[in-house]
Amino acid sequence: MEPQHRESATTRAVQGSHEGTRRVVSRDLVELGRALVETLASECAAGRRVPQLQLLASPFYEAIKREIARTPASESGKIGALSAAADQCRRVATYAVTPATVVLELRAAVAMLSAEPSRTFDAPYRVRPRLRLIRGGLA
What we know:
By secondary structure, the chain is mostly helical.
């Protein structure tokens, strides 16, 4: 006779439906993150600057903070994943130099939350080049 495994409601909620991957947090938060990454990628391709992308990303960071506050201390794995994703968002707010960096860092944060492999080393998004006038004469 096989031993029966008792499965709590938390365990069922954590498990994902994508090819055996295990979700660490709610599906809504992961979907919000994925939608944000898609939006940021298109905004990055349109030539938006880093501060504009950071403002677009702030609701995702706030949602992560709310989820951390709601999570009981007994769910240390979930708190750890949420904290790592929050750290990733803070890194975007502090150290993002290029728009592509913003997109790559937030994609990594979403990957942490969904327990999917991160694709942070993909080629950065193509950003439309900006032509700038250099003032001055021949030196």
